[in-house]
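quick one before i forget lol
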Amino acid sequence: MADATSDRDQAPWWAWPWSAAASSRVPWFGVAPQSLTQPINPGWSFGNVIVNSANSSAPDVEQEIVSQHSYGRQIGRLMDAVEALSEALPQTGNDERIKEFRELAAEVDEIKKEMAPRRLEQLRRELEWLKRNDPAGWEKLRDVLR
């Protein structure tokens, strides 16, 4: 006689995950590890850039530098220096790379100008917070600014 099972011998269709987990042959769906130890982002990140030993020979040094001088500040100073050099060397005036650099520098300056009102508004809110929540700090700041 063939293996025949009645409907009463089978678990309902929705119970399959629990019946599979209870089976000694299949540990919890058979795909998930029983324990997992994995470092998540073992380096550090700047926006969507992750700095770790795979892309930096000294990520700890790089992190310390960025903590004191942001990438934006570093790039800004480089741009200022390249701009000064390109102006001091008139023969670079027709070089397409210099033209593209000057266009980039002009776009960056425009973005800074456009962002100034937003930055001023943020500063105003921070000063109001200081005045409300730290009167002694507010007085100290006023004395420094006089």
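fyi The chain has a mean pLDDT of 79.
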